[in-house]
Amino acid sequence: MSGLRGAASIAGAGTYGLGEAPGQSELEITAGAVKAALDDAGLKAADVDGVFCASMTYNMGSLTLCEYLGIAPKFSDSSMIGGSSNLAHLLTAMMAIATGQCDVALVAYGSNQRSVSGRLVSTSRPDPFESPYGPRQPITSYALAASRHMHEYGTTRAQLAEVATAARAWAAMNPDAFLREPLAIADVLNARPISDPFTVRDCCLVTDGGGAVILTSPERARDLPRPPVPVLGGAMAHWHRAITNMPDLTVTAASESGPRAYAMAGVSVEDIDLVQVYDAFTINTVVFLEDLGFCAKGEGGAFVENGAIAPGGKLVVNTNGGGLSCCHPGMYGIFPLIEAVRQLRGDCGERQQPNPEIALAHGNGGLFSSQVTLILGTDGTL
Amino acid sequence: MPADTAAPGPEQAYFDALADGRFMLQHCNACGENVFYPRALCPHCGADALVWREASGRGTVHATSVVRRRPEQGPPYNVALIDLEEGPRMMSRVETIAPEAVRIGMAVTAVIDRSGDDPVVVFHPAGGGA
Ligand SMILES: [Zn+2]
Q1: Do both A292 and A329 map to the same domain?
Q2: Is B16 on the interface with A (CB under 8 A)?
Q3: What span, in angstroms and rounded, lies between the C-alpha atoms of A261 and A292?
Q4: If I label A308, which of A105, A184, A374, B14 is the partner at 20 to 30 A Cα–Cα?
Q5: Quick check: A122 pLDDT over 70?
Q6: B20 phi and psi, to 5 degrees?
Q7: Whether residue A238 sits in one domain with residue A224
Q8: Ion ligand 1 — residues with CB < 5 Å
Q9: Same domain, A14 and A101
Q10: Which residues of chain A does B62 touch, with a Cβ-Cβ cutoff of 8 Å?
């Protein structure tokens, strides 16, 4: 796999309709993000010959999107592994480019689920061994995992709330974020309870929105207008589907995908300047910081205390405000990726970090199930 | 119909047994592991040598949550993961005590609840105490 290091670079990224986009269809939102990414890359739809699209509503997402955009691709992929799908697509796209299956890959996602339903939508067949008990999915699954982390390691609700307050403080510096007003730990603890130990403020937003990235060879990316962002490393892993079958409720497959991605990139945890992780729930950030090696297993709660992952803290995490405060249109995976790209290119305005060179983007899908870790760099790191 | 598809598959067989009042687990004659949820192939070794054994019903709460609703939607209820004495883990709920009184590590006993449309395995605190 190390042969794929730097095999492709991100040449463009775009978002559209973050927050509320009433009256917009899913495809209109996705197309808006595609246009933004293509404009960013200085390319046209006719230049795209590889399309990667998973959808919450179209089970052949790449067919639907290609038809909509008038693209006849040489390669496409609609694989669905939940919220990490878009990051998995980047990995597949890199392989497709490296092997000559396509030259310019589009990875795109969009959803109008806030405007059409106002809640998280599941498109899966109900699990006959879980659904009779009425878990409020996906929330209760992550709540069960949180209960176990609290039991084994003494993690507290206030520590979980730190994740939400840090995300909100970052969101305050992101004009695209959906919720930007100040949030205190007490606000999180006293919010409407959903599934113990979570209140509504431990849970991701339900928004509309789309995101897209353009991937091409490092050589071609250098001829395009924006600073290329090479993909230095990438790996996926999954160990279960339903929370009942997660081998250890406190350890995700990120503990496998992370080290493999680091090995491919030739980096260690200390080299990473900023971290964008899929924070569907407050417990996610705590567990991913552990599993990705930023602290030891069980120490994630203490690690995030006292604003450690808020602006000015000891680790730069989720600078866009995350799924908790920026956006969460059903599947969030493409947004940590886009935020990492924007930080590496210096696009982030008030929340811009000083000259980051290596960024981690991590996607989570299902019920703490599918994990995809990507390591991105500046062209100088290639 | 070929002989090997004439009988109900393991999923249907599990629910048929439950309707008859028996909570069954699978046991793999090839590797010795116990299996839940019911499958056609053993997830530990891949063999199709799975046979049914009645569960002891003894378990321990591994994780627990309380699903909260708006008052008009009904009272809060428990959702828990139960480690069965035989090894597998299952989702269920602990009844007869307040949902927030369910504790990780609590010993529980399986009961078949027939109050709904379909029978379902739930758990009570072991010994019937509250
Ligand atoms: Zn076996």
Answers
A1: yes
A2: no
A3: 10
A4: A374
A5: no
A6: -85, 5
A7: no
A8: B 28, 30-31, 42, 44-45, 47
A9: yes
A10: 148, 249
Q: What is the pTM of this model?
A: 0.97
Instruction: Give the one of A130, A194, A244 whose C-beta lies nearest to B68's C-beta.
Output: A194
Whether residues A246 and A183 fall in one domain: yes
Q: Output the CA B15–ligand 1 centroid distance in Å.
A: 22
Tokens 């000259």 belong to residue: A355
How many CB atoms are closer than 10 A to CB A45? 16
CB spacing of A243 vs B81 below 8 angstroms: yes
**Residue contact A195–B64, C-beta within 8 A:** no
Distance CA A8, CA A188 (A): 41
What tens digit of pLDDT does each residue of A182-207 get? 999 999 999 999 999 999 999 999 99
Q: Looking at the 3D structure of chain A, how many domains does it have?
A: 2
Q: What DSSP assignment string belongs to A77-92?
A: E---BTBTHHHHHHHH
Cα–Cα distance measured from residue A315 to residue B14, given in angstroms and rounded to the nearest whole number: 49
Q: How far is B7 from chain A (nearest CA, A)?
A: 20
Give the number of A-B residue pairs with CB atoms closer than 8 Å: 73
- How far apart are the C-alpha atoms of A138 and A21, rounded to whole Å? 24
Q: What is the mean pLDDT of chain A?
A: 97
Do A178 and A275 reside in the same domain of the chain? Answer: yes
Q: Do A148 and B89 touch (CB under 8 A)?
A: no
Do residues A21 and A224 make contact, with C-beta atoms less than 8 angstroms apart? no
User: Which residue segment(s) compose the domain that A154 sits in?
Assistant: 136-198+233-381
Whole-number Å distance between alpha carbons of A298 and A17: 37
